[in-house]
């Protein structure tokens, strides 16, 4: 199987690379070289249509795994053109190629496609209502796949973190090391998801496709198993970091409403996703938040 992985240097791409390498001939691409060593890596500016088409022609992927995304949520409010180019136009082009060449397409989306006003976990059938340019652009990408009518799966997820890249866990640890008292938002609820767990869920989908090629396309939710506020998430990070010796003491923290941190893009207050469909379709169960965070803290300690 020929596999094309975009966004290979990002949090999810970094976790997917070794897993996909075992399942076929992998071509990994990104704007900058990933931290891992790979002989089949290509620099790719996804806005360059000719470069993208040439890459597809040369690599002839049977499977496209698109983790490339514009994730600067606040910056997207002032740079909607770039956000839509990466989050909507790119998947549209990839989906069109997949349709023409009978390839599978695995794509990723976000809890930001919802308005964040629910009081129960969002299912895939619930009405969308993005409140930001970022959310609108990701929803447009989802719709592009459906319109292309290729063989695809979209995995919506939330609050992704890992031991590398830019994410909430690493940001909290950096702030804690400075000895500052921290105010942390406590009125937004979501499900923190380890990038490796999302990568493992992705591979499970791919393996199921290989076993049952006629499997239907669609949107699926995957996140880990705990619903927390940002404040509660930070509390667990600090507690585990102290136990692991990454911090001498947990910083002083204060829970605050999101109104204390006004930002250009509105964040969903409720970002909890219902994972029932992916469990039924692919036998994928949400991984343990607590166990996953411990492993990430251990990875960070090992690299320190």
Could you write a compact summary of the structure shown?
With 304 residues, this protein is an alpha/beta fold.
- Total E-strand runs: 14
Helical amount: 40-55%
> Biggest sheet, strands in spatial order?
3-2-1-4-5-6-11
Q: In terms of structural class, how would the helical and strand content be classed? A: alpha/beta
State the major sheet. Answer: 7 strands, parallel
The average pLDDT is 94
Counted by DSSP, the helix tally is 10
Beta percentage is 15-25%
Order of helices and strands: EHEEHEHHEHEEHEEEHEEHEEHH
Outline type: globular
Low-confidence stretches: none
Radius of gyration: 19 Å
Distance N to C terminus: 37 Å
Q: Could you explain the architecture of this structure?
A:
By secondary structure, the protein is of the alpha/beta class. The protein has ten helices and 14 strands. Helix 4 runs parallel beside helix 5 and helix 8 packs across helix 10. The longest helix is centred in the first third of the chain and has 22 residues.
Can you tag this structure with a few keywords?
single chain, 304 residues, alpha/beta, seven-stranded parallel beta sheet, three-stranded mixed beta sheet, 14 strands, 18% strand
Question: Helices, strands, pairings?
Answer:
Blueprint: E1 2-6, H1 11-21, E2 25-30, E3 41-43, H2 49-59, E4 63-66, H3 73-76, H4 80-101, E5 104-110, H5 133-148, E6 151-157, E7 160-161, H6 168-177, E8 182-185, E9 189-190, E10 193-194, H7 195-211, E11 218-221, E12 228-229, H8 230-244, E13 253-256, E14 270-271, H9 276-282, H10 289-303
Parallel strand pairs: 1-2, 1-4, 2-3, 4-5, 5-6, 6-11, 7-10, 8-13, 9-14
Antiparallel strand pairs: 9-12
């Amino acid at each position: 199987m020929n596999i094309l992985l975009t966004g290979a240097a990002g949090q999810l791409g970094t976790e997917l690379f070794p897993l996909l390498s075992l399942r076929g001939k992998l071509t990994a691409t990104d704007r900058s070289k990933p931290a891992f060593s790979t002989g089949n890596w290509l620099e790719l500016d996804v806005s360059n249509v000719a470069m993208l088409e040439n890459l597809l022609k040369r690599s002839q992927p049977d499977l496209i795994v698109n983790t490339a995304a514009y994730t600067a949520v606040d910056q997207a409010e002032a740079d909607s053109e770039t956000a839509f180019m990466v989050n909507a136009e790119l998947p549209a082009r990839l989906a069109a190629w997949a349709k023409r060449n009978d390839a599978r397409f695995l794509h990723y989306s976000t809890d930001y496609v919802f308005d964040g006003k629910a009081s129960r976990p969002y299912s895939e059938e619930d009405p969308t209502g993005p409140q930001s340019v970022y959310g609108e652009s990701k929803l447009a990408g989802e719709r592009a796949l459906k319109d292309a009518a290729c063989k695809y799966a979209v995995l919506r997820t939330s609050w992704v973190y890992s031991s590398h890249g830019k994410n909430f866990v690493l940001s909290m640890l950096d702030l804690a090391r400075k000895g500052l008292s921290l105010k942390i938002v406590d009125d937004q609820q979501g499900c923190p998801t380890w990038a490796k767990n999302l990568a493992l869920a992705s591979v499970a989908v791919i393996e199921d496709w290989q076993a049952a090629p006629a499997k239907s396309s669609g949107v699926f939710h995957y996140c880990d198993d705990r619903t927390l506020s940002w404040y509660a998430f930070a509390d667990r990070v600090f507690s585990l970091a102290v136990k692991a010796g990454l911090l001498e003491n947990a910083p002083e923290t204060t829970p605050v409403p999101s109104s204390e941190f006004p930002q250009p893009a509105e964040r969903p207050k409720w970002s909890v996703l219902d994972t029932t469909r992916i469990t039924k379709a692919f036998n994928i169960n949400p991984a343990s938040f607590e166990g996953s965070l411990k492993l990430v803290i251990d990875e960070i300690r090992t690299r320190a």
